[in-house]
Amino acid sequence: MRDRNTNGSEDAGQTVSTPPDLNLLRTFLTVYRTGSFTAAARLLGLSQPTVTTQIRTLERQWGRELFERRARGVTPAPYADELAARIVHPLDSLAAVAGPAGDAEDAPAEPVHLAGPAELLSRSVLPGVAPLVDKGVRLRITPGLTEPLLDDLRTGRHDLVIATYRPRGRALTALPLNDEEFVLVASPARVQRLGAPEHLATALHGVPLVAYAEDLPIVRRYWRHVFGRRLVQQPAVTMPDLNAVKAAVVGGAGFTVLPRYLCAEELASGVLVLLHDPDDPPINTAYLVQRPGTSGNPHVALVRDHLLQAARDW
Questions:
Q1: pTM of the predicted model, to two decimals?
Q2: Cα radius of gyration rounded to whole Å, the chain
Q3: Mean pLDDT, the chain, whole residue set
Q4: Which domains does the chain have, with CATH numbers?
């Protein structure tokens, strides 16, 4: 047990005789949000050793360990959550008043870096960005797979990521964005050749499969959810682009599973046909993910709120 000195504070450095340095608190909050000393250094324009030194200084002042060092980045220790909750709003409010790095009031805000699945970005997000552009928002859009995009979000390369699953841990915050229904489809010619089999899942085993990836993440999920069995089939064609998968199936290459929003026009026109229409189709929820707290760029909140509102109509 630590002894207390005459003014009631603890020895061993837990209580600071002077208010904490704001620069140390800003560094702490940036590390907390990004989950990485390296990412925080990049965002703050500092060297990684400087960030490490500042965090160690703050830890000595508070007499508490703030972060647990991991092989990849850091995770907040329990006291870090409490400290972040206490300082996030005051520091973000101060940053909003001061402006980014003290720039002049008429200086444009930094671009908002938004990332997500290429198909959802091109089909749903980009057609509706005009209101943001009219407000002076600058967007930098990056397509990609969820896992690497979330890694880049943690390191500060993106401001917002549309993810196909909810990330684990406390380093990121996620809000449900929209639900997408998966449908089993093929071209009319393939459907005609298939006929009306008694057991569709068994009959499709002899039909070429077109897929997004070799491990068939979308198709396997459909099989488990709808047919209650494991899919044992190698794809005939793979392409990490759902629009390309759709084009191959429209051309008669085989069958696949797609998000309904991506093939609604093709189903309506008849160039694609539903192979199955279950009462309980598989649904996947997309999430809008960002680092905790309020960004120093006010346009990040504008983009986030716009996407959450626009997603109701997707």
A1: 0.68
A2: 25
A3: 86
A4: 22-102 (1.10.10.10), 116-170+298-313 (no CATH), 180-284 (3.40.190.10)
